[in-house]
Please model this.
Amino acid sequence: MNAIAAIRPASTRHAIARGLLIVPALAFMALFLLLPLAVVFVEAFKQGIAAYWSSIVQPEAVAAIKLTLLVAAIAVPLNLVFGVAAAWVMARFEFRGKNLLGALIDLPFSVSPVIAGLIYVLLFGAQGWFGPWLDAHGLKIIFAVPGLVLATIFITLPFVARELIPLMQSQGSEEEEAARVLGANGLQMFFRVTLPNIRWALLYGVLLCNARAMGEFGAVSVVSGHIRGLTTTLPLEVEMRYNEYNYMGAFAVASLLALLALLTLVVKTILEWRFREELPAHTSVH
Amino acid sequence: MSLQLSDVTRRFSRHAALSGVSLEIPDGEFLALLGPSGSGKTTLLRILAGLDRPDAGKVSHAGRDFLQVRPRERKVGLVFQHYALFRHMSVMENIAFGLRVRPWRTRPSRKEVRERVHALLRRVKLEGLGDRYPMQLSGGQRQRVGLARALAVEPDLLLLDEPFGALDAQVRVSLRRWLRELHDELKLTTIFVTHDQEEALELSDRVALMNNGRIEQVDTPAALYQRPATPFACEFIGRVNRIPLRLEYGRPQSGEWRLPSPPWSHGHHEAVAYVRPEQFSIGTCGSKPMWKARLRHIYPAGSVAHLNLYVESMDQILEIDLPGEELNQRGLQPGMELGVLPRAAVLFPLRAADADSGTRWEWRETDDVFPALVAHR
Model:
């Protein structure tokens, strides 16, 4: 009985401390995350569903959706391949300059997106290094779709690799070695052993990469030139409508991006839930 | 079909993991690679499996150059210390992996694969667990899956890297006896790496003792214990007393213990003798020239008693084993003053640099030099 009496004050104090931490955290999240998200949808539907729908199916909005999907459809698979290759190299080999490669993979995280866009303008723009040559051959990169794709690839480059490197390092190469000794060739080893072991982390990385590819504004804004219907992606379309005092239209397009974010969040949560089941396998094997 | 290694050398950036290792392993032998960690035994195993390449030297198996053969064509089964099972595959899929990745011309049919997997499950006593995943198995079960997976490809050579290292003591003993029985049944050339001498001595036909990237001695377990070839072999295998000796007029001695000249006495001033705990004579004081020693502790251990004797002239504690019966007959008690001398020893000159097999001397007491001392009482 004494023991219970001794424990109770401590556990009450524990509950109070927990409340003191949880309530501000929830309030903070509501103020800075949920409220803005709600505002997006409230503003988008202010003039009714019909107005919302018609502002989304306007030709320039449809073009922006198509362009956003096209850019992501090129940038994400390329970064998927690059990310797996880079993670493999980083996790499986020791070589000179490995730290440098790691820093380079992280570079897009540390460089401001506007700078990233400017780099491409300086390289491929009319006054840039390769500008005259490109012009002479009738190739257009800046203020055109290739520039958008290049800037997006740059910005989203670290996502897949950063997700895979720690996992592949912790898993080690023993299973791959076992596969080789058992007679698997390189492709069999990759598709039957390596890939199944990293599939959830890979999917997770691709998801984050895709969310960023579709939502990127800064770098894309610099190389786009804002040509309506030709080089405006969804985030740029939001900005242009906003600058034209078309608030409802801006929020309608923004709601599409918000939906993308919510979808990403749901899939991410499902993956994390899935992941948690796989994680004990990593720890108990080693 | 024998496996031959000659002068195999492997350097990692700073140190030599293997320097000039030569070894011949006849067909069907069960060989242990024994040594402390960092002695190069795992590197040697990885070279045999094709996961690493030597910088110099040759490896040939059944007359063909093994180093020119890719790992997947070597017909080698490898069992890992941490099992390295494919975690996303069931036990059956793990075992079948080596058969399923074969080129379709040599790949067995689905039915054959299933039959072979079931036969292997029976062999490793895991019937009924085929649908489990590795994380649902105990350590001993996982290691048996690892073994079944390695055996599925019908290898010519079975390699095991510390196969029992991650298991607890009881499972380890039963699993290694079972492995030995399996070997006797399959007659498969087997090489296993271990740092546990008990495991190596109990299981193998021959033991290759490794140290610092070299093979110190290759011998049967009995010979390795009774006739160690190098100081390292003396100290690594079993328990041993190391006794430093001075050479005077070519004769090694320490206190009352005087020996005849060893074959290599010229040019050396110091030597070292290794004496096993059971190779001592104990007498009472005064009967013969013997080391004066005080009995510090008696650790009875069933049929044998371990004695700690302090010899003042050497300022050294000797570990001595006596049959428990003899201990009782003599009525030995801690604190008693006793006479003690080695009955047999292996001697080396102290300069380790020139300690090759020629500079080793096995000395054994003969009755005419030292009459039976044990009888005095």
